[in-house]
């Protein structure tokens, strides 16, 4: 019996349900996108030009739009009839254009964004007006008419007119026209990677082929945060996969309302300012976004139902990069090659432990239909499915394959084969499994692959089988954390035998892991609120940390267990921080913490006070979390 007989192939194959476009009828040869920013009107006008190959001879072109104003359409340079359908939930308004049944078609569409646009955020930055876009997953259609599916990739030429400096998803080209910025992207990219940013941006070097951009007030801090390992990250990734193809890896630290930790925009990765915390502990996000240069940007999931192909692979590459960095640091401290390699693997496994805990927590609390590796998005909003599942469940599926197929020395050649085979293309999960068999069967590994229950791995909800992980770097944390559990269970709180000094030998990652451990354990044992309220004096370093990872977990421990009310300083300080933190990783659980730990009324009032600050994607998700949608 072939693996295709064992795999429910119908769940892996099919058209993208999140687009109304007839993308399968066309090949996009190239795209030109010309935009003009109006800070006064808080809108973007534009013209998009498509050169298409009509594969099926159809007389209709259907593109995705949402809350866009369509001004004019031309086909082969002549005015053309078009119809904009009534908007449908989630997918928006399909734009129908009559076309000749010719093989080569040129389409030109003039348009303007509206105030309901979900892709862009106009705001006042620290030093002037600012606008940025975020198109993942299906928000590009609110910025410009497009085939809004990752199944379609195209080379782009970008132009933008703005009174402030512009960055876009390509390589800058010198422009002789004032306030006009030009970019070329010769590598095919999908619509969700199209990006526009404009503001008072300055840059500083963080590597021989990398600059960091930000508003000038934060530039020095941003440079210090990322310059230590940027080129190391690139070189390690190149050795693991193949040479970096995008020429430069520049990055942009956006204002605080940016909704993600990072976004892998080609040639200009976007980053949240919460990464700039003065201790370099969150630069791993940069390693993650760099890894996307191969997994996601070069090799792309064909629909959001297969999002794990982007994110699972990216987490896998990220952890390999971080393990190699740890091994390099060990060598610099005089450890032997074998000791350094072992330490690098311990560091990778320690990061896996945090990932596993995050996966279990997500599976226990998230909608089960979205805890599958391959999901069904027919009639559903991809944003509703966003969680740690494609990242961590995807990673642990790849880690399972790595172990079953003989370890990294056997899996690494497959990495190079896979990314070379699919670069510039989009694929589904069946393509991935086919490629595993294509590569490993001639090496005598077919029986190993046949032993895998593909349907269970790909289509089952919940937590997968738990892997055996190296806990060397976690054992010290576990030992210390168990002392806390024993102390609480004994019930004598007259003298608290803990202090900051206890964790002074912990790395930053171990300190974060300790707080996560304490947060989880305090959910299952009775912790008196009066003890919880003493914690800031026991661990003042956690109480005053500016690192978002500490802030969120620390306040989860305090507010969940401390019986605080809306007038307590701890609550007010955390609520104020949330009101200036647009990263969804922190904002969404933060408002749920206020809702469940203080009151629903308080959480809603705080959100209402700050809702204009948030990017439309983040605002919509918090509204759903708080029952306001």
Commentary on this structure:
Helix content is 39%, strand content 20%. It is α+β, with helices and mostly antiparallel strands and 629 residues long. It has an eight-stranded mixed β-sheet, with no helix packed on it. The chain has a five-stranded mixed β-sheet with strand order 16-17-18-20-19, with helices on one face. Strands 9-10-15-12 form a four-stranded antiparallel β-sheet, with no helix packed on it. Helix 13 (508-522) runs parallel beside helix 17 (548-561) and helix 19 (584-597) runs parallel beside helix 21 (616-625).
Q: Examine the secondary-structure arrangement and name the CATH architecture of the largest domain.
A: Sandwich
Radius of gyration, taken over Cα atoms and rounded to an integer in Å? 25 Å
How many distinct folded domains? 4
- Do you know the CATH topology of the largest domain? Immunoglobulin-like
Share of helix among residues? 25-40%
User: How would a crystallographer describe the biggest sheet?
Assistant: 8 strands, mixed
- Poorly predicted regions are none
So what's the overall shape? Answer: globular
Structural class: alpha+beta
* Strand order, largest beta sheet: 5-4-8-2-1-11-14-13
| Straight-line distance between termini | 49 Å
Number of discrete helical segments: 21
What percent strand?
A: 15-25%
Mean pLDDT: 96
Count of extended strands: 22
